[in-house]
Amino acid sequence: MAENDPPSVIGKIKNKLIGAKQEWAKDGRLLTGKTAPREQRLPPGQRLVKDWPVLDLGIQPQIPTSSYSLTLDGAVEHPVTLDWVALMALPQSEQVSDMHCVTQWSNYDNHWRGISAAVILALVQPKPQARHIIFHSHDGYTTNVRLEQFDQPDCMLVHHWNGQPISRQHGGPLRGMIPRFYLWKSAKWLQRMEFTEADGPGFWETRGYNNNADPWQEERYS
Ligand SMILES: Nc1nc2c(c(=O)[nH]1)N[C@H]1C(S)=C(S)[C@@H](COP(=O)(O)O)O[C@H]1N2
Ligand SMILES: [Mo]
Q1: Domains and CATH numbers, the chain
Q2: Rounded Cα–Cα distance for residues 53 and 55 (Å)
Q3: Cα–chain-centroid distance for residue 59?
Q4: Which of 71, 93, 67 is nearest to 173 (CA)?
Q5: Which amino acid residue places its CA nearest to atom 16 of ligand 1?
Q6: How do beta strands 164-165 and 142-146 pair?
Q7: What pTM does this model have?
């Protein structure tokens, strides 16, 4: 979502909430100043919760699978737009992973079903110059990761959580899941993955959040 989008898109109240989160980033709120090795399951400054809180920009697009499609384009050999049937025809896989939100909650052992990063990358074949992926969502949200951060065995595009289709509020029918980075890197209501040569900081990355977002390095803010 661009800086200059009209406020009506998000709504004034939500702009206030976004503003508050931005202030936190500026103040370095929630920082413990510690780092931890990966072997420590709970990253520094996080607390374990049993539920799955909802965080978004105040818009929760409703996208039936019958009208859903995902575009994979940019610096790839084989750009493609896949409808739901085509997505489900790809090899499906399962993973169990933890989630870590910058607002300090973590939860463990989420069971995902979806399409692995490896399948997506094999399908589109990023060009040698591709270095980054920009995730674009149906609510106007964007987030960026480096290609090698996505090219990991635990990264997926997910459509089921703990045996159920991912709900609308959590970004269904399809969202990104990049478990080893703060959850703002995992785009809900995914619309497009754009492979790029140049980095393109997304919604939160341009509002004071860290571009890299490693929870064990406590990379909350920039
Ligand atoms: N499309 C979209 N994806 C998004 C967001 C968003 O506002 N829109 N928020 C991000 C943030 S800040 C977080 S913490 C997680 C929250 O995911 P959840 O609501 O399923 O817990 O989604 C991330 N992905
Ligand atoms: Mo977040």
Answers
A1: 9-217 (3.90.420.10)
A2: 7
A3: 16
A4: 67
A5: 55
A6: unpaired
A7: 0.93
The pLDDT tens digits of the residues spanning 9-56 come to 556 667 878 888 888 888 887 789 899 999 999 999 999 999 999 999
Pairing assessment for the beta strands 190-196 and 69-74 based on DSSP bridges = parallel
| Residue 190, both tokens | 């995914």
Query: Which tokens sit at 218?
Result: 């406590």
Residue ID of nearest Cα to ligand 1 atom 13: 184
User: Ion ligand 2 — residues with CB under 5 Å?
Assistant: 55, 102, 184
Residue-wise pLDDT for 167-215, tens only, equals: 999 999 999 999 999 999 999 999 999 999 999 999 999 999 999 999 9
- Full 3-state SS string of the chain: CCCCCCHHHCCHHHHHHHHHHHHHHHHCCCCCCCCCCCCCCCCCCCEECCCCCCCCCCCCCCCCHHHCEEEEEECECCCEEEEHHHHHHCCCEEEEEEEECCCCEEEEEEEEEEEEHHHHHHHHCECCCCCEEEEEECCCCEEEEEHHHHCCCCCEEEEEECCEECCHHHCCCCEEECCCCCHHHCCCCEEEEEEECCCCCCCCHHHCECCCCCHHHCCCEC
Pocket test of ligand 1: the residue of 10, 56, 182, 190 to mutate, having most ligand atoms within 8 Å of its CB, is 56
Task: Tell me which of 10, 188, 206 to substitute to probe ligand 1's pocket, judged by most ligand atoms within 8 Å of the beta carbon.
Answer: 188
